[in-house]
Design a protein that fits this description.
This protein is of the alpha/beta class and 381 residues long. Helices cover 43% and strands 17% of the residues. Helix 4 runs parallel beside helix 5 (135-144). The model has no long low-confidence stretch (mean pLDDT 97). The protein binds pyridoxal-5'-phosphate (PLP). Pyridoxal-5'-phosphate (PLP) binds at residues 108-110, 113, 134, 136, 178, 182, 207, 209-210, 233, 235, 243.
Length: 381
C-alpha cells in the first residue's frame, strides 16, 4: 500500500519532471509596486492591487482604528456573533455603487463563488461555465452537484447551442463567466450573454474580481447590464480582503440563510471591512486613479506591439512552461517581478507571463519593463 508520504513524493517528482511544481516564496511588499523577495527589491508587475490601495494611508488608518476598537478577529460566523455592523455598512455602499438592491459579503471571493453556485444550483440543475473561468467557479459548480458543461471561451453561439440542447432537461440553469478573465485580461461579452440567458430562462453569474475598481469607472465589467448575480472581491483593486455578491434582496436574503460558505465560516475581521469601506470611498471619488491601470496596460501593449489591453491584465503567451519560467527569471534579474503562469492554471501549451498594471506604477517603470522583456525575448529566440 502507498504511504501518504510516498504518494506526495511521487506526485511532486512527476510535477518537477514537467517543470510544474509550485513553491511558496516569502515576499514582503513595501508599497504599491515594490517588494522584497530572496534579498532583492523588485518592481512588481504581478500584484492585483490595481489601484495601489493596500498601502494607502487612508486604508491603513481605517483598519488600525477598527482593529483597536473591535479586535483582530470576528470570533464566529456572521450568523452567530460575527456580523459586525461595519459589514452591513459596506454591503449597503457596495449595493449602491453597483446599482443593486442588496449585497452579501463572504470571507473571500473563492468562498463567495462556492456559496453562490451551491445555493442556487442543485443535483438536477445545469451549470454552464466559460471554459476559462476561475477555479472558484469550478469548485462551486462541483459543490453544487449540478451537471456541469463548458462553452468555448466567450463563444455566445456555443453557449446558445448548449442551452438549446440541454436547458429543457433541468429545472434551473446558471451560466457563469469571469467579467475580466484573470489569466487573459479580456472581457466577457456580458450583454450578449445576458440576452442569451434571458432567452433560455437561465441565470447569469458574472465574477468581476478583476473588474471592480478598474473597468467602467470602477463599477466592473457587468456595469450597465441587469446581471442577477454580480460577484466580486475586496482583495484586488480594493486593497483589502473578502468577497461579495450584489443581487436582488430576495437573492441576498436567501444566500444569507443558506450559503454554506457563509453560514459555516467565520465572518471577516472588522479591520478588513473598514479598509474596504475606505477603498470604496476612494474609488467613488478619484476617477483619475481608477482610469490609470488600464491606461498603463495600454501603454505597455503599445510599446510591445501587442493587441491593445482591455483591462489591467496583459498576458504574453509563450507556450512552453520552461520558456515562461526562464523569461520570468530573466526579468527578475533585471529587477522586475512578473509571474510565469503554467498549467493547470492555464491550458496546456499556453504558458505565459501574466503582467498586471497598477495606478501606482510610474510610466518609466513600464518603459523599462518593456525594454527588459524585449531583450529577454530576443535572447530566447
Ligand atoms: C476571477 C477570480 N475570481 C475569484 C477569485 C477569488 O477571490 P479571492 O482572492 O478574494 O478569494 C479570484 C482570485 O484569485 C479571481 O481571479
Amino acid at each position: 500500500m502507498d504511504s501518504l508520504d510516498a504518494y506526495a513524493e511521487r506526485k511532486l517528482a512527476a510535477l518537477e519532471g514537467r517543470n510544474l511544481r509550485r513553491v511558496l516564496v516569502p515576499t514582503r511588499r513595501e508599497d504599491g509596486v515594490h517588494l522584497w523577495r530572496e534579498g532583492r527589491r523588485l518592481v512588481s508587475f504581478s500584484c492585483n492591487d490595481y489601484l495601489g490601495l493596500a498601502h494607502d494611508p487612508r486604508l491603513v488608518q481605517a483598519a488600525q482604528e477598527a482593529l483597536r476598537a473591535h479586535g483582530a478577529g470576528a470570533a464566529a460566523s456572521r450568523l452567530v456573533t460575527g456580523d459586525h455592523p461595519l459589514l452591513g455598512e459596506l454591503e449597503a455602499r457596495l449595493a449602491a455603487f453597483k446599482g443593486a438592491q442588496a449585497c452579501c459579503i463572504f470571507g473571500s471571493g473563492y468562498l463567495a463563488n462556492m456559496g453562490i453556485l451551491a445555493t442556487f444550483a442543485g443535483a438536477n440543475d445545469l451549470v454552464l461555465l466559460d471554459e476559462l473561468v476561475h477555479s472558484s467557479l469550478w469548485s462551486g459548480a462541483k459543490l453544487s452537484g449540478a451537471r456541469v458543461l463548458t462553452f468555448a471561451h466567450n463563444d455566445v453561439d456555443h453557449l446558445r447551442a448548449l442551452l438549446q440542447a440541454h436547458r429543457h432537461e433541468h429545472p434551473h440553469c446558471i451560466v457563469a463567466t469571469d467579467g475580466v478573465f484573470s489569466m487573459d485580461g479580456d472581457l466577457a461579452p456580458v450583454g450578449d450573454l445576458l440576452a442569451t440567458c434571458s432567452a433560455h430562462d437561465s441565470w447569469l453569474l458574472v465574477d468581476d474580481a478583476h473588474g471592480i475598481g478598474v473597468i467602467n469607472e470602477g463599477r466592473g465589467a457587468a456595469h450597465g447590464h441587469d446581471v442577477p448575480l454580480q460577484m466580486g472581491t475586496l482583495s484586488k483593486a480594493l486593497g483589502s480582503y473578502g468577497g461579495y455578491v450584489c443581487a436582488s434582496k430576495p437573492v441576498v436574503d436567501y444566500l444569507k440563510t443558506r450559503a454554506r460558505t457563509l453560514v459555516y465560516s467565520t465572518g471577516l475581521p472588522p479591520a478588513s471591512v473598514a479598509a474596504a469601506l475606505a477603498a470604496l470611498e476612494i474609488v467613488e471619488h478619484e476617477p483619475q486613479r481608477v482610469a490609470e491601470p488600464l491606461r498603463k496596460a495600454q501603454l505597455f501593449t503599445q510599446l510591445m506591439d501587442l493587441p491593445q489591453a482591455t483591462s489591467s491584465i496583459v498576458p504574453v503567451i509563450v507556450g512552453d512552461a520552461t520558456r515562461a519560467v526562464a523569461l520570468s527569471r530573466a526579468l527578475a534579474d533585471e529587477g522586475f517581478l512578473v509571474g510565469a503562469i503554467r498549467p493547470p492554471t492555464v491550458p496546456l501549451g499556453t504558458s505565459r507571463l501574466r503582467i498586471t498594471f497598477s495606478a501606482a506604477h510610474e510610466d518609466e517603470d513600464i518603459r523599462s519593463l518593456a525594454s527588459a522583456l524585449r531583450r529577454a525575448l530576443e535572447a530566447q529566440a
